[in-house]
Amino acid sequence: MIKVEHLTKYYGDFLAVNDLSFEIDEGHVYGFLGPNGAGKTTTMNIMTGCLSATSGHVQIGGFDIFEDPDHAKRLIGYLPEQPPLYMNETPLEYLRFVGEAKGLKGAELKQQVDKVIEQVKIQNVKGKRISALSKGYKQRVGIAQALLGNPKVIILDEPTVGLDPIQIIEIRDLIKQLGQDHTVILSSHILSEVQAICEKILIIAHGKLVAFDQPDKLESQLLSANEISFKTDAPESDVREALSTVEHITELTVETTENILSAHIKTDAKDIHAVSKEIFFAFAKRNQALLELTLKRASLEDIFLELTETEDPAKATEGGEQS
Amino acid sequence: MIAVLKHELRNYFHSFTAYVFGAFLLAIVGIGAMLYNLQAAVSNFEYVLSFGTIIFVVIVPILTMRVIAEERKQKTDQLLYSLPISTVKVILGKYLALLVIYLIPLAIISIYPLIFAQFGDVYLPTSYGSLVAIFIMGAALVALGVFISSLTDNQGLAAGIGIAVILFNYYSVSLSEYVSSTAFGSAIALSVLALLLGVIIRYLTRNEQLASGISLILLAVITATYFLNPTAFEGLLPNIMRQLSLFDRFNTFVSGVFDLTAIFYYVSVIVFFLFLSVQSLEKRRYN
Fold it and tell me: B131 and B230, same structural domain?
């Protein structure tokens, strides 16, 4: 559906997007994740034709956004970071204008405007001036605008920023709903949000793509961060001996308090359960008891921090590919 | 384009802009008609129009100040960029809406000569010729205003620059008598203009080589001409100032000549500034 190839954007001497390439299929919710200033908004602005690129190509449904913007833009609905609303109009007037600008006419225009108003639930404020609406409602009007013309792709730039918790939940539910019959791309720097709604995540840092996968796969990708900790009453020498038969242990720290030994293990094994099983049987064979055994999978947060805080973005990409 | 046109029109009637513009234009023409046609009992309606042109200095910038500056301020220009309408169509839609606003008071004014004709001899061809001319002249000023509005996101600044530029244009003929008419003075003024052109090109294209290249070539041409044939610059500056005046050309129509070169000049000004406005909007895509 969307194909981004070797996209590069300089602002003067500042490199905002650095040779970014990825492909997005039809019909999922994609999350665009990265710290502030990573190039999320710039990339989205280029994808929607609001900004030119220094080099590279963007294709939307086979149409090049730079060479055939008319066809490409018809496939996209875009909500920029600050919803582009005319404050002295009512949502109804505003949506009619956007609909007309997208080429809708007559009965079709009316039907579509009514439909999106219902979809984003702004029926009760459609006749008020936009300047008088709350932030959450303004955001909804902005989303409604993006939905007009029934575009295949909907791109939302930080759609939940500045909303209160209840509004955030409502907008998230709306996005999930939209994901059923549109391709939705949303950007965010909030991890839990992306984890909650997105089926696939693109992480970018320093204008480069550092990871692109499903949230759970991303988690299993980052192997070194998987941790196992256990407690036992066996002495340290016995513990070290028992663990020497277990593979995939990259780091071991032990500490003894009141005859109870706590051990922390980091592992690079793909299957963390296999490792915990081995540990269990190693101790069982020696007839020694494990008092406690806990697994800690790397969270998306760990992955995010590890990927985006790397000084050299190229290194992070390599790490991701190796696994 | 039609969508933008309709949207702009609705916007103008939502706010006071259209009404203020129309009211001022009607008021000044009304005062003029009272002074010339009623009190002085002159039957030439074109004198009234000539008297009224000064009001354009104020009302055109007021009309055009928000047209693009406000979009930038409210960040609604992002919407225009992401919609499947080309920048040319956006500018044309906005410009046509302004012309419609401008035509409404003019349509009312166009009834006046007919009314006066009921009470005496009014030479209608000159009256209506001047009305057509004042429409096209105003349209040229509006195009200039659109361009100025596209340079900033501050409405007030757009209005201020607009008033200054149009005022200068209004008095450029009178001022031309005071500027130096020597060859040296003209050469210096032209050099400054060449540099200014370079700055504008640099701003619009962000291409330093192109801008400095054009500036340098023009400067070289000016210097060479100055040393080879200094008489070419004799009186050039005041001449240019007279030529640039949009208002001065209108007086030809008032004296009863339907001057096609003036019409052509006005249309060129419109095309030139609308083109620059499109470039100015497009430029935002590249920064």
Answer: no
- How large is the C-alpha radius of gyration of chain B? 21
State how far residue A154 is from chain B, nearest Cα, in angstroms: 12
Q: Which two tokens stand for residue A249?
A: 């242990």
pLDDT digits (tens, 9 = 90+) for A157-195: 998 888 888 888 888 898 998 888 899 999 987 777 888
Q: pLDDT digits over A208-244, tens only?
A: 888 888 877 776 665 556 788 889 888 888 888 888 8
Q: Same structural domain for residues A175 and A92? A: yes
Smallest Cα distance from B27 to chain A, Å: 28
Instruction: Determine, yes or no, domain membership for A323.
Output: no
Q: Which of A50, A78, A82 is opposite residue B285, by nearest beta carbon?
A: A50
Q: What residue numbers bound the domain in which A231 lies?
A: 223-296
Hey, is B137 helix, strand or coil? Answer: helix
Domain assignment of residue A322, yes or no: no
Q: Which tokens hold the place of B32?
A: 């003029």
Instruction: Judge contact between A154 and A77, C-beta under 8 A.
Output: yes
The whole-model pTM stands at: 0.83
Lowest mean pLDDT of A57-71, A259-273, B1-15, B40-54, name the range.
A259-273
Answer whether A207's CB lies under 8 Å from A18's CB: yes
The number of folded domains in chain A is 2
Residue B191 structural domain:
182-234
- CA–CA separation, A113 and A109 (whole Å): 6
Nearest to A82 among B75, B81, B285 (CB): B75
pLDDT tens, residue by residue, A37-55: 888 899 999 999 899 898 9
C-beta atoms of B82 and A50 within 8 A:
yes
Is A307 contained in some domain? no
Q: What is the CATH number of the domain that holds A159?
A: 3.40.50.300
**CATH (domain of A237):** 3.30.70.260
Alpha-carbon distance A262 to nearest alpha carbon in chain B (angstroms): 57
In a shared domain, residues B153 and B204: no
Query: Which tokens is B271 given?
Result: 């095309």
- Residue A203 sits in the same domain as residue A79: yes
Identify from B4, B76, B79 which residue to disrupt to test chain A contact, counting A C-beta atoms within 10 A and taking the largest count: B79
Count CB-CB contacts under 10 A for residue A161: 15
Question: Do residue A109 and residue A132 come from a single domain?
Answer: yes
The three-state secondary structure class of A249 is: strand
